[in-house]
Design goal:
The structure holds two protein chains of two kinds. Chain A is built from nine helices and no strands. Chain A is an all-alpha fold. Chain A has a single domain, classed as Four Helix Bundle (Hemerythrin (Met), subunit A), CATH 1.20.120. Chain B has two domains: 30 residues; 87 residues, OB fold (Dihydrolipoamide Acetyltransferase, E2P), CATH 2.40.50. In chain B, a hairpin with a 5-residue loop joins strand 4 and strand 5. The chains are: A mainly alpha, B alpha+beta.
Chain lengths: 241, 149
C-alpha cells in the first residue's frame, strides 16, 4: 500500500499527473480571478467606514491568506520529504517558495497602500506587520539557502529544516492581533460569525478561491519544470526532450 | 512504519515542538515590548515612562474633542472604558478620526500624564458593511432604545 503511494509520487508520475490537471486549474484560476475582480472592484458596495478604499481588501486579504497557506504547504511537503525521502515532496516544497514570497510582498505593499489613507501611516512596527515581514525574510532565506548549496540533496534537506523552523511564525502572524495590542484590526472571516456583510463577503471569498487556484497552478507548473531539471539524466526525461 | 522513518518523523516533530517552545518563551518575555501601545489604564497605573516617546491606544471619548483655537492645540480624551488620558495635538488627523473611534497617539507624557502627541493614527474595526446596512442597523437600534421603557 505504502509502496504503491511511493510509486504514485515518483517524479515521473507526478510530472504526468501535474501536466494533466494544471491546465484545468489554470483555467479556473483565470476565470474566478476575472469574475472576482469585476465583482469586487465594480459591483460591490463601499464600506460604511472606509468608503471605496475597502476594495483593497479584495487583493490584500487573499494575498495574506495565501502567503501563510503557501508556507504551510511548503513546511508540510518539507516534513514529508525529510521523513519519507520523497524527491517529489522536496520539489513541491521548493516550488512554493517563489510564489509564497510574491504573495507576502504584495500583502505588505497593498497593506501599506491601505494603511496610509485609513490609519494615516504606511508602516508601524506592529506585531502583525512585523511578523508578516519576517515571513518575507523566511521565504527569501529559503530561496537563498537553496541557491547557496551546490549538492541538490543537501540543499533540499537544509531548506526543509529551515521551512520547519520557520513554521512557528505562522500562528504568530495569525494570532498577533489577538495576543498583543496592534494597530492592525482583529480577525474578520476566521471567526465563528464573520463580521462582514454578505455583499462584501461574496467577492472576497471568490477572490480567496481564485488565489488558491493561482497558487496550485503555479506550484504544479513550477514542479514540472523542476522535475525535468532534477531528473535530466534519467531515461524517461531524455526520451521526452 | 520502518524504524528509520519513525526516527526521522520523531526528529521532525521534535524540531517543530522545540522551536515553538523557544518562540513561546521568547514572546512571553518580550510581551510588553511587542504591544504597539499602552492603554490609558496602564498609563494611570504608572507603567508607561514619562518624558520619552510612547504610543497610547484606545477610543476617542464621546464629546471630549476640543478643536484648536488660536495658539492652543486640539485636545481629546483617549479611554479604554477604565482609564482616561488627555491628548493634545496640533497636526493633520486621519479621515477616520472621530469620537468613539479607535486611535493610536504617538507622543511624550508630561508630568501631569498628559500626552503631547506628534502623530495620531486611526484604527478601524474588523466590521465591514455597506453604508445602507449601517444606517438600517443604526435606525433599528434607535427604534429599540425608544421602545424600551
Amino acid at each position: 500500500m505504502l509502496a504503491n503511494l511511493r510509486q504514485l509520487a515518483s517524479p515521473k508520475n507526478f510530472y504526468q499527473f501535474a501536466g494533466t490537471i494544471y491546465p484545468w486549474i489554470l483555467f479556473l484560476a483565470v476565470g474566478t480571478l476575472c469574475f472576482g475582480l469585476v465583482w469586487g472592484l465594480l459591483y460591490s458596495p463601499p464600506d460604511y467606514q472606509q468608503g471605496e478604499t475597502v476594495r483593497i481588501m479584495y487583493l490584500h486579504v487573499p494575498m495574506a491568506i495565501m502567503s501563510m497557506a503557501a508556507y504551510m504547504v511548503m513546511a508540510g511537503a518539507s516534513a514529508v520529504g525529510l521523513v519519507w525521502h520523497l524527491k517529489t515532496a522536496h520539489i513541491v516544497a521548493r516550488s512554493c517558495a517563489p510564489i509564497g514570497a510574491m504573495f507576502t510582498l504584495v500583502t505588505l505593499v497593498t497593506g501599506a497602500l491601505w494603511g496610509k489613507p485609513m490609519w494615516g501611516t504606511w508602516w508601524q512596527w506592529d506585531a502583525r506587520l512585523t511578523s508578516e515581514l519576517i515571513l518575507l525574510f523566511l521565504y527569501l532565506g529559503y530561496i537563498g539557502l537553496y541557491q547557496a548549496i551546490d549538492v541538490v540533496e543537501t540543499a533540499e534537506r537544509a531548506c526543509a529544516l529551515l521551512a520547519l523552523v520557520g513554521v512557528v511564525n505562522i500562528p504568530i502572524i495569525h494570532f498577533s492581533v489577538e495576543w498583543w495590542h496592534t494597530l492592525h484590526q482583529g480577525p474578520t472571516i476566521s471567526r465563528l460569525n464573520p463580521t462582514i456583510d454578505a455583499s462584501l463577503m461574496g467577492p472576497l471569498y471568490l477572490m480567496i478561491l481564485a488565489h488558491w487556484m493561482i497558487f496550485m497552478a503555479y506550484v504544479l507548473m513550477h514542479s514540472r519544470t523542476a522535475i525535468l531539471a532534477r531528473e535530466r539524466k534519467t531515461q524517461w526525461v531524455k526520451s521526452l526532450v | 512504519m520502518n524504524p528509520k522513518r519513525k526516527q526521522r518523523l520523531i526528529s521532525v516533530i521534535a524540531i517543530v515542538v522545540g522551536v515553538s517552545l523557544a518562540a513561546a518563551i521568547l514572546l512571553y518575555a518580550l510581551r510588553q515590548n511587542i504591544n504597539l501601545f499602552f492603554t490609558p489604564s496602564q498609563i494611570i497605573s504608572g507603567e508607561a515612562p514619562l518624558g520619552t516617546t510612547i504610543r497610547v491606544g484606545g477610543l476617542v471619548k464621546a464629546d471630549s474633542v476640543i478643536h484648536p483655537q488660536e495658539g492652543v492645540a486640539m485636545r481629546f480624551v483617549v479611554t479604554d472604558n477604565v482609564g482616561e488620558v488627555t491628548v493634545s495635538y496640533s497636526g493633520l488627523l486621519p479621515d477616520l478620526f472621530r469620537e468613539g473611534q479607535g486611535v493610536v497617539a504617538i507622543g511624550v507624557l508630561n508630568a501631569e500624564k498628559k500626552l503631547i502627541a506628534s502623530e495620531v493614527l486611526a484604527k478601524h474595526d474588523e466590521t465591514y458593511m455597506p453604508p445602507e446596512v449601517y444606517e438600517a442597523m443604526k435606525a433599528s437600534a434607535e427604534d429599540s432604545t425608544i421602545k424600551q421603557p
